[in-house]
Amino acid sequence: MERTLLLIKPDGVQRGLIGKIITEVENADLVIVNMRLIHLSREDAEKFYSVHKAKPFFRKLVNFVTKDRIVAIELEGENVIKRVRSLIGTTDPKKAEKGTIREKYGLDMTVNTVHASDSKETARSEIRFFFDEED
Ligand code: CMP
After folding, report:
1. Is 27 helix (H, G, I), strand (E, B) or coil?
2. With CB atoms counted within 10 Å of each terminal CB, which end of the chain scores lower, N or C?
């Protein structure tokens, strides 16, 4: 069994997509083991996305992800990291595969509705970022 982190970004929360996205997760037989609705501080957002610190889009990304609440969801299942990445689609909604969450709801590279961990190592650290070990 593997675990991963899925975030519903501010545009998903503001446009009332929390229920729709959770339904997609449940329909894919993924198990929700932890969930939180939070408003990230700038400092926390910069820490969470620190791998992108030197990128030209970093400031825009931090501004966007701190503009409203987000939902952090810890998921469990076999091969869950890969399965959730397929469920959400590629970063750019315009290039995302048909039927994926980003293709259906994402607007552009920044306003792309969801985030999911991309490796076992990232999943471990991203889960730890939002949830305590004992949660
Ligand atoms: P996410 O999966 O949250 O991980 C990092 C985010 O950076 C990514 O989704 C995008 O929202 C954003 N991002 C990545 N590449 C670009 C880019 N070229 N231009 C703007 N935003 C980007």
Report:
1. helix
2. N
- Residue nearest (by alpha carbon) to ligand 1 atom 8: 91
Q: Which CATH number fits domain 2-85+113-130: 3.30.70.141, 3.30.360.10, 2.30.30.100, 3.40.50.2300?
A: 3.30.70.141
Q: How far is the CA of 102 from the centre of ligand 1 (A)?
A: 12
- Residue from 6, 5, 8 nearest 113 by CA: 8
Cα–ligand 1 centroid distance for 96 (angstroms): 13
The candidate with the shortest Cα–Cα distance to 73, out of 123, 32, 13, 124, is: 32
Model pTM score: 0.97
Dihedral Cα 28, 89, 116, 74, nearest 10 deg = -10
Per-residue pLDDT tens, the chain, 135 aa: give them: 999 999 999 999 999 999 999 999 999 999 999 999 999 999 999 999 999 999 999 999 999 999 999 999 999 999 999 999 999 999 999 999 999 999 999 999 999 999 999 999 999 999 999 999 766
Choosing from 57, 59, 62 the residue with most ligand 1 atoms within 8 A of its CB, the one to mutate for a pocket test is 57
Ligand 1 geometric centre to CA of 28 (Å): 24
